[in-house]
Amino acid sequence: MSDQRTNSDPDRPQHGTPQYGTPQYPDPVAPAAYPGAVAPGSMSDAPGSMSEQYPGYTGPSPYPPAPIAQSPGAGGLAIAALIVGIAAFLLGWVPIVGLIIAVAGIVLGILAVRQPRGRAFGITAIVLSGLGALTGLVLLLGILAWMPMAG
Length: 151
Fold this sequence. Notes:
Layout: H1 50-53, H2 76-90, H3 95-114, H4 119-150
């Protein structure tokens, strides 16, 4: 009697049966053996090896972190003085509002000049506020001088 065994695994080729479908590729995780290849770990101490170029994590540094240095930029008061100075310069044409904003800009500019940071912004704020105050004063005096003539 002949022994007829059937293969339950259709992907496994039987003896003498040609294999159809996708070819069987080697495991992609397994390292490939190329001609002239060196086994991993045999050259780990060689100069220029990966372990010499990129050492492993050695843990936290025993030294404290470097202090964060203050940026040499202008301070907040100097920037505020400059913004108010620009507003005083632009609104100097409005007689009373321009004068009030110009006085605030001059005061903030003087406070900014007294600090070590923001000296240039403070001086600019004083100049712009002074020009705004001068414009506001000239307009206010012009209006006051014109009012008695009109009535």
